[in-house]
Amino acid sequence: MANLAFKSARILCEGQIERPNFADQLEVNRNYIIQTIQVNTDVRIQWLFSFLNADKKTYCLYEAPNAEAIRGAAQRLNLPADVIIEVGEVQPAMFV
């Protein structure tokens, strides 16, 4: 899904992992990856990257038509999605 054929925005999703050891218990295997790709395709989102900080919060960046698409995918995959905001891109060259 490298080239999205619809209007999209970069959207940041923050999830507080309140479930004990959620990240450690998440079984990322072939079936989970296939399921995730299928759900993301169904709701027309593209995951770009994620990271987990020391406070057990995840931050994921997506290309998506809107925040509701991300919220829907998170619900279907049983993933935390507590705060979802549209973000812009800032690069140093913009200030020169």
What would your notes on this structure say?
By secondary structure, this protein is α+β, with helices and mostly antiparallel strands. Helix content is 29%, strand content 29%. The protein has a single domain (9-95), classed as Alpha-Beta Plaits, CATH 3.30.70.3090. The protein has a four-stranded antiparallel β-sheet. A hairpin with a 4-residue loop joins strand 2 and strand 3. Helix 2 (30-42) runs antiparallel to helix 3. The termini are far apart.
Can you tell me the CATH topology? Alpha-Beta Plaits
Tally the helices.
Answer: 3
Helix share of residues?
Answer: 25-40%
pLDDT averaged over residues:
79
What labels describe this entry?
about 100 residues, alpha+beta, Alpha-Beta Plaits, 4-stranded antiparallel sheet, disordered N terminus
Topology:
Blueprint: E1 9-16, H1 22-25, H2 30-42, E2 46-52, E3 57-64, H3 67-77, E4 83-87
Antiparallel strand pairs: 1-3, 1-4, 2-3
Summarize this entry quickly.
The chain is built from three helices and four strands, in the order E-H-H-E-E-H-E. With 96 residues, it is of the alpha+beta class.
